[in-house]
Known about the structure:
This protein has nine helices and ten strands. It is of the alpha/beta class. It folds into two domains: 4-127 and 305-322, ATPase, nucleotide binding domain (Nucleotidyltransferase, domain 5, 2-Layer Sandwich); 135-303, ATPase, nucleotide binding domain (Nucleotidyltransferase, domain 5, 2-Layer Sandwich), CATH 3.30.420.40. The protein has a five-stranded mixed β-sheet, sandwiched between helices. A five-stranded mixed β-sheet has the order 8-7-6-9-10, sandwiched between helices. It starts with a strand and ends in a 17-residue tail after the last helix.
Amino acid sequence: MSTIILGIESSCDDTSASVFRNDVILSNVVANQKVHEEYGGVVPELASRAHQQNIIPVVEKAIKDAGVDKNDIDAVAFTRGPGLMGSLLVGTSFAKGFAMANNIPLIEINHLHAHILAHFIKEDEDYNHHPEFPFLCLLVSGGNSQIVLVKDYLEMEVIGQTIDDAAGEAFDKCAKILGLPYPGGPLIDKLAKEGNPDAFVFNKPRIAEYDYSFSGLKTSVLYFLRDQLKQNPNFIEENKEDICASLQKTIISILMDKLVKASKDTGIKHIALAGGVSANSGLRESILAGEKKYKWKTFIPKFAYTTDNAAMVAINGFYKYIKQEFVGQEVAPYSRVQF
């Protein structure tokens, strides 16, 4: 007997809905918000207003694209957090209303868990390329940088995380220093392909065990550029590609050093990548290089499942549905990280 799950994602500035039959995706619709580009970052109030405009048409399209009727849906899964509170409230309120109107169970999803379980999305019944438990997942995004020990679909343990800024935040803030438009991370990746990654050296933090820190790197880049601009006002424009390549190499090196240590210490060879920054080409290449260098078996999600999307919410909802892990109408979203 099949189970139909509707997933809803609204943690930041993308409104998304997805429909699954068991663990196979039937549809995944994402509405982006371009309004934030002129502000150099996501404006929470504008994001929540856009979610209110987008959520009904996005859900309707997801159900239509899936070829199902709303009465066929067995449960609705929604992102409870972490994220922007105003954005989360829109998705949570809609999910609660949909569940009540259709008399179906409500399933709350942790946004970070969802990113990890994106590896188990099937596009057809025969797809079987996913990590085996236990595996290590490097979860990197604008708000989080973590190494997660994944023991089962719903059992995960953070063994390393950033003590200040996340890798994605470091990319975006350094991009802003360079005068690049928002979002800056993808632009740094693009420019880095044309530059020399060994042109400049930036400071790498010394943090114990598997934890990360990126605030010092941002300061290092800021002071380096300040000193160079005193001597040559055109330094950034003349060296933009090399700066981006050197910066990207440093961030990836910081991420990889800890991941390699965690793999050696735990003996785990199945390594997965997740989160928005997993779209970075340099990071993907470094993870894949680990297959030869460290005898890893690596897993990298499709680009469609790296950024925020409801497919990762729905697949998580399917595994929670199996265990009957439902919540009541009193459930409220949370903005801060909870793992």
